[in-house]
Amino acid sequence: MTNDRPHRPLTHMEAKMSGTITLIAQTSETSSTNPVPSRQVTAEDIPALSELFFQAYDASSAATSKDDAQKIIEGVFDGEFGPFLPDASPVIEDEDGKVIAAAIVLEQRKGDDLPKAPYLFELFTASSHRRRGLAEQLVREAMTKLYNQGYEEVSLRIAEDNSAALALYLTLDFNRWVPYNDDV
Q1: How far is the C-alpha of 93 from the C-alpha of 48, rounded, in Å?
Q2: Secondary structure of residue 27 in the 3-state scheme
Q3: Is the dihedral of CA 77, 154, 18, 163 positive or negative?
Q4: Can you list the positions of beta strands (E) in 58-180?
Q5: Chain mean position to CA 48
Q6: pLDDT tens across 10-53, in order?
Q7: Average pLDDT, stretch 50-63?
Q8: Which residues pair with 20 in a beta bridge?
Q9: Rounded mean pLDDT of the chain?
Q10: What is the mean pLDDT of residues 145-166?
Q11: Which stretches of the chain are assigned E, i.e. beta strand?
């Protein structure tokens, strides 16, 4: 489902020029139990995901309003950014059933400069629930689901100055990726 060639590391200059970093990791099956119950995302979650997505980021994100957030989340479900993989997209709810964290995964993100692999489109956690390991749990769950479906790799893109996200992904064995000329 993915290329067998190794990926050339992204040089510091290339990362600075792009403003974003593309990361890729091998999927794997984790044997640990999840400390917090999760479930697969459904279309009924669109309003809650939209609200959480809008609140999780500052004004510099793609969702500058609640309406923008709703359009983006609806676009994910409609395949606007690439085929959506709801079964590899876990969410976590609080004790009242409110979605507090989510990982949204696509089969492959549309775009010429991305790996031909599943793509972690969004990962967000309510600010009141951060620093509890929920994001790491969701990424590990998504990677396990992808592995069990036969996918070998998963990719994502983050802002180069997002040190917290970069630290998380490096902990999860993600590596920098740039395409060889024939990868795209």
Answers
A1: 10
A2: coil
A3: positive
A4: 90-93, 99-106, 119-125, 153-159, 175-176
A5: 17
A6: 333 333 445 888 999 999 887 666 788 999 999 999 999 999 99
A7: 76
A8: 159
A9: 84
A10: 92
A11: 20-26, 39-40, 90-93, 99-106, 119-125, 153-159, 175-176
